Amino acid sequence: MKKIIYSVFFLSVFIILCFISLYGVIVSPLELSYSVGGYQIAAFERGLAFYQPNTRYFYTFSPFNDYIVDVDGKRMPLYSKDDVKLGKYKSDLDKPQWEKIVSVILKYFNLSSPEISYQGEKNVDYITTVDGNKVIVDRYIWWKNNNSIVNTGTTLTYYPGDFIFDAGGNLYTYQSEKEIESFKKIYGVDLRYETTDLRVNVPTQFLFIINPQLSGVIKLSVNDGQMIWIDRNSRLIDIEQTIKEVEKYKSSVTLEIFDTPQKALKSI
Amino acid sequence: MIFVQSAISAIVFFLLPVLIGGAFFILYSKKTELQIPVVTYFITGALYLYGWALFTKYIVLSIIPHWQFQAIFRLELIIFGVSAVLVNIGNEIERSVDFIKTHIKTILFLGLLAGITYFIWHLKTPYPLNWDLYEHQILANLIQKGTFSFVTSQMSDAFTFNGYSSIFQTLIASSQMLVPQINIMQFWDSITFIHLFLCLIASYYLALVVTDNEVIAGFSAVIGVLVFESNVAYTTLFFIPQNLTAVLSILIFIQIILGFKQNRSIPLPILILSCIFLFLNHYIIGTASILLLVCVYLYYKYNLRVHIFRLLSLGLFILIILGLIASFVSLGFVNNGEAQFYSFDILDKLKFMQNAYGFSLLMFLPLGIIALLKGHDIHKKLILIISICLLGLVLLRLPYSLKFYVLTRFFVHVLMAIGIWKILVAIKNSLLRDLAVIIFFLTLIVIFITNNAYFKSILFYKDSYIQVSKNEIDASGFLKEKYSNENALLISDPATQNIMEALSSVNTPGGAYMSPSMRKQLSLLHGLTNSIEVNQVLNTIHDNLEPIPNKRIFVLSGRYFSWQDSTEDEKQTYFYNIWDPTDLSFSDLKYIDLLQSDRNFNLVYLNPGVAVLEVR
Asked: Which residue, A230, B196, B469, B488, could crosslink B483 as a Cys pair with Cβ 3.0–4.6 Å?
């Protein structure tokens, strides 16, 4: 018995030393970024961002841009400027060291996807499913005080020089004639720019985004019941849907990355 | 099939010198008793081959200058190889089979450890992540094409610092010349695995010879394989001269101790031969290894064991002097300022250690030191002194001092293993002790994975961790086929040049080590849209060793554009590179279109990551 107690004591000491050893590893935030085709997706303080390394372009899903619309048609962000100013929300980005270590291990073996949660008056979760060059972003809003809400909007940021167009070749962001010509010459895709409205409805379920400074094409797809708007004033792509459930609203958006516009268009 | 050929070529790197060295001993020195014959054979054979390469270049070709170096050297390799096989058959085969039979359990254990480690390392990592391999491959390519010199910087301007002779690259070239049609990336992958296995053997047998305890040796091996110094040293997973030098030094060190333990010391000529190889293979690590080996040899030979603490004091005194010198002298001039970048303070180094070890070094090293201070075993005391002195050297704020960890680690891991063993022996219940071993193994695996993830995180490209993309490899294949036999000059950013010169055998102006003046010229192209001016600037860029090319090839990769977008200071520094591949964007393609529509340029190749233009 004495031998066992003695052994258990030293085993415990040894295990503690092993745990301390493990606790010392350095986990950089970069380790938790996930590949989606030529882009990467990772959770940041302001939301889930879609980006290419070593560039300054971040396409972001954020609760500070996402919104709800009440019966009077009033649009409100999930977290307002005042909420931000007063710190009325908390994200789970900064995880305890043990959780970070587990996340890195799971990520190394492709057993996880990025996600981020915000707690406040409304709880908001962004959960992703990554599969090769495709990612499904599910956003959940948990809110009890919701009687007057009729619509929710998920948003994706974009940049001024981006080409945003649909499968029919309708261009939703301004580009000069010369740029449109170059686009046709290089990619063989004919685009036309007609709209002058600041907020434009996209009549299809698919949209393509090309940042001239980045490689690849982002294909954005929405489900039945969702509607895409290009808000050129706020540089946001809004994906709006009518709410069906009480207390929990789910919204899904799919992004796929292709090397060229031809491949992206062929995928429809 | 190409993978098999590449793997065989990697094996030939080690096997050919071993066979030649073995044949040499069979023919000329059969009575010499060697503790680890295969190490001495390798060193002898490697020196023999290199000696012939030098003889061919500096004697034969000076007498008959119209002969081609590569043709004569290939012939020599075939003759030596075939003769060595014939001599070894019947002499060494039986001995080798006996050796394998005796050590089969250890070999399987170490092989399994190496396999697990390499599997984890290799996940989502299709190509080696050893940035230096491209430089070595550039020289190996040149040797195969007939350009040979003792001095690396005389062969290619991709070498600005002569840190070693060309022996390592000659051996690489030899193995690639004997096995045709290999895949270069698979060759380096295979040779890295063999190197990892050799590191394991060195870790295991060093601990075994010092402690005579197989369990401690096992722990030393586990730590040795799962600790990857992901800054500067890269001992286990990068096959480069400094690491080969370190592994061989440890194996020679083991021979010295074994010799004195068995009362038949290592023959002095063999020690001298070994020291010559170590020096040629890496001047700095080689010199440190020679000092270490000579001290240890003298320590045993002249029975200096009574003065053990005086030796320690002397070692530490020298380190303090070195430290003082380093603090007063700016060493930033070494290697065009790159050395300055590799001069880290203690906190940086502790952070690097944390990456590789977590806190395990802090937990188990002191235990090992305390255990050895209490003991009286002279071999263990020797390990303690060496570890402390080498650790002191590593911690000094000298450029590249962290490189000395390639040697230090082997001794430190023995100490850690002893520390672990001291706790485990206190666990009397065998089941609980096994549980402790499993927990330790899992702990190190987790540390290894987090370290891997950290190291690789900046190399993430399309769900793989890579430094070179398939697009770049494909483009290199095209360049090799079209231009490798011409006097062509490939111009791009330093990283693209480094990769593509190695994979295509097309010359570049300095590879990754493009000279400051050439960098300045290349940087002038940033934002330049007039194709005539672009053409004029490109025509001023040249290789320092071969100034007039017949043709200039302008390679525009995603990296090139990222490099051009960097700041002027970044572009001028050697240690700044675009490490991960990038594909071409719409803006990049527009620029390529602009150039190709002009008669000064001819677009000859395009894929999503790389465009190749001939400059007219």
From this structure: B488
- pLDDT at residue B36, as a whole number: 85
* Nearest C-alpha neighbor of B296 from the set B386, B389, B391: B386
**Contacts with B586 from chain A: Cβ below 8 Å:** 163, 182-183, 186-187, 210-213
pLDDT tens-digit readout, B428-444: 999 999 999 999 999 99
Top-tier CATH class for A2-266: mainly beta
Tell me the domain boundaries of chain A: 2-266
**B584-613: burial string, b at 16+ Cβ within 10 Å, e else:** bbbebbbbbeebbeeebbebebbbbbbbbb
pLDDT at B329 over 70: no
Mean pLDDT value of segment A68-87: 87
**Distance (Å, rounded) from C-alpha A240 to C-alpha A68?**
9
- Report the DSSP beta bridge partners of residue B491: B554
How many whole angstroms separate alpha carbon B89 and alpha carbon B81? 12
- pLDDT score for A183: 94
* DSSP summary character for residue B267: P
Tens of pLDDT, residue by residue over B219-246, are: 999 999 999 999 888 999 999 999 999 9
Q: Does B79 score more than 80 pLDDT?
A: yes
What is the average pLDDT across B335-358? 78
Q: How many whole angstroms separate alpha carbon B466 and alpha carbon B459?
A: 5
Interface-testing mutation among B427, B451, B455, B564, with chain A (most A C-beta atoms within 10 A): B427
pLDDT at position B581 over 80: yes
Q: Distance between CA B347 and CA B338 in Å, rounded?
A: 20
B513, B131 contact by CB (below 8 A): no
Cα–Cα dist A40/A26, whole Å: 21
CA B520 from centre of chain? 30
pLDDT for residue A80: 87
pLDDT at B334 exceeding the cut of 60 = no
Chain B residues closer than 8 Å to A213 by CB: 585-587
The mean predicted confidence, pLDDT, of chain B is 90
**By the CB < 8 Å criterion, does A5 face chain B?**
no
Q: Helix H segments across B457-487?
A: 470-483
What stretch of H or E contains A126?
strand A123-131
